[in-house]
Amino acid sequence: MERSMTGTRRVVSAGEGPPREPPNYTGAVYGSLLAGSVVVGAGAGAGGTYDLSPLRLAAVLVATGLVFWLAHAYARLVGRAHHAAFNWQEIRWVVRREWPLFQAALPPAGAALLFGLLGASDTAAAWAALTVAIIEQVGWATFMTLRAGVSRPQVLVSSLVYLVLGLLIVALKAALHH
């Protein structure tokens, strides 16, 4: 059964499911911004020190990405509940669509782990994770706007907006840690 916009229900055939849409790449941009924010907030130690080991930072990044992915997927399901009843096909579609939000946490977490394995300081690992998150954010924004077929100037503006947002996170980190 599926609810229409007017609230009436109709029978959905077995082969009919959610519309085929690409993954939610805006989630990847948001997830990258979230990862950068997590790096800043997770390590805000007293006296300008960064008190979070690379392993713990990576764990916090992955856990936060997972929680936000689940929250976004659930919110989308609840929002879609006005149009269709929940079923496993719908749930699978939604969690796949929102998956890029979680995936965005993995490269910064990987950077923190790599720097930790190489013996870098906790601060250097955090800066590496933050740098990767910002590069990823700008990269996803550029990819999305190119994929949308907008003009090159619009792609440039979009990329610059996300770069500025990333640099604002850097400024916040610098302000909190000095």
Structure description:
The chain has 178 residues and is mainly alpha-helical. It has one domain (23-176). Helix content is 70%, strand content 2%. It has six helices and two strands. The protein has helices at residues 25-42, 54-80, 88-103, 106-117, 122-147, 152-176, and strands at 2-3, 9-10. Strands 1-2 form a two-stranded antiparallel sheet. A hairpin with a 5-residue loop joins strand 1 (2-3) and strand 2.
Features:
single chain, 178 residues, mainly alpha, two-stranded antiparallel ribbon, 6 helices, 70% helix, 2% strand, globular
Overall geometry: globular
Oligomer, anyone? single chain
- Distance N terminus to C terminus? 58 Å
Strand content: under 5%
Helix fraction, binned, reads 55-70%
Largest sheet: 2 strands, antiparallel
Number of strands: 2
Given as residue ranges, the uncertain stretches (5+ residues, pLDDT < 50) are: 1-15
* Spatial order of the strands forming the largest sheet: 1-2
Number of domains: 1
Judged by helices, strands and strand pairing, the structural class is: mainly alpha
Order of helices and strands: EEHHHHHH
Instruction: Give the rounded overall mean pLDDT.
Output: 82
Count of DSSP-assigned helices: 6
Radius of gyration: 19 Å
Could you give a quick summary of the protein structure above?
This protein has one domain (23-176). It has helices spanning 25-42, 54-80, 88-103, 106-117, 122-147, 152-176, and strands at 2-3, 9-10. 70% of the residues lie in helices and 2% in strands.
